[in-house]
Specification:
By secondary structure, chain A is mainly β. Chain A is built from no helices and twelve strands. In chain B, strands 2, 4, 5, 6, 9, 10 and 11 form a seven-stranded mixed sheet that branches. A four-stranded antiparallel sheet of chain B has the order 1-3-8-7, with no helix packed on it. The chains are: A mainly beta, B mainly beta.
Amino acid sequence: GDSVTQMEGPVTLSEEAFLTINCTYTATGYPSLFWYVQYPGEGLQLLLKATKADDKGSNKGFEATYRKETTSFHLEKGSVQVSDSAVYFCALINTGTASKLTFGTGTRLQVTL
Amino acid sequence: NAGVMQNPRHLVRRRGQEARLRCSPMKGHSHVYWYRQLPEEGLKFMVYLQKENIIDESGMPKERFSAEFPKEGPSILRIQQVVRGDSAAYFCASSPRPASSTDTQYFGPGTRLTVL
């Protein structure tokens, strides 16, 4: 079945540091890939997505590129802020099992001054 | 336009009691999804409903759990005879059409169920 693997957290960075959160996936067919963010006490918000190989999703300074050859969708940001502290989830939706998202376990990011 | 609403936000039950979780989708959305997030884990799909129909319940435990999305009113996730292992955050999401790469699921704030 489909699965998503994320790097273990927590990730602790100083403000303005570079962020990478690794995400790899296993899926049949041609999944679409997503990053969701969960701020403390809130639900998930879609951060960015990519629907086909080599697509780059971007939003709020975050970027991720759909790499089919390495089955990866790593999240990056050049300069993190304290307000980026949250849990980040990588997810996929598969055209073969449409409608349900398959999530990774989440990576907690803590940004300090 | 109000987002997906869930209530209650926090629910405490004793073992053996029933838990009812409610989800009101965004206006104009007729597709609802329920996910469960166990402590320190990612979200796991439970069930996908369209108005009055269960489309996919492959992630729902066969016993004690049920879900409905009536023609009028919110979607309800019902857990009978709760056990400690049911303690989790339950998230509801909705979409205007079947979720896909183009039709995003919008998530509610979740209901945090604690079973004593």
